[in-house]
Amino acid sequence: xxxxxxxSRAVAAITAVVAAGSLAVACTASTTTHAGPTLDxxxxxxxxxHGAFADGSSWNDVIxxxxxxxxxxxxxxxxxxxxxxxxxxVRGLISHIDGPVVLVGHSYGGSVISAAAAGNDQVKxxxxxxxxxxxxxxxxxELTAKFPxxxxxxxxxPVAFTRPDGSTGTDLYIQQSKFRDQFAADVAADRATLAAxxxxxxxxxxxxxxxxxxxxxxxxxxxxxxxxxxxxxxxAQRFMAERAHSRxxxxxxxxxxxxxxxxxxxxxxxxxxxxxxx
Length: 278
Known about the structure:
alpha/beta; AB_hydrolase_fold; signal; hydrolase activity; AB_hydrolase_1; Sec-Metab_Biosynth_Hydrolase
């Protein structure tokens, strides 16, 4: 017959050994986890702000790469009504995000992030992608015209609209037949056709609105400069980046560099993010 008392004592002894071993493993694992950074260490949220004649989908390939590297990402819906109003929209989005933010702006989106990040300690770094970095008192239109090379004016398609307050305005599109050559010459034809159809217009007055603040004066910035850009001249991009003391990456690309060279853009964003990761 089996001695139940002896069996019970044996089971209890074995259980105690297993429990002690589990505790030792748990303590070791805990020590290892806190010894240094891991793949699951908190990372800043990347907030992407598109520019005129585009929408959030223009970031899709960049988003894929950032998510693969475990970055939380939000592609903001930029209203394209004016830097001050658009910056307020982006600030509202940022306020609902926990932790540090790296703010990224393409094209006119650069004007928006320069305003949205001003005085905002949550924003730790700025990344400009073929973008405007206006100083107070400057407009996107003024910076475009400061140097030769932009062929954008001849491709625009103005559309009248009525604002909620009853005033009239002009929305600017790029003519679909000219979109690829002007905006996305190094993007596959089928993707450029989709982008042309889905483009979002910008209120003309947004390009004429003067900047009132410039976050790049006191926040670290990175800049992807596009050498084949027909929207913002190369000389204008270099002028703005040098003035802001940005860390520059130049790419032989069209204005749609986030679509044609997503690896480069994602890499620069991660360079900025690594400087603010706890």
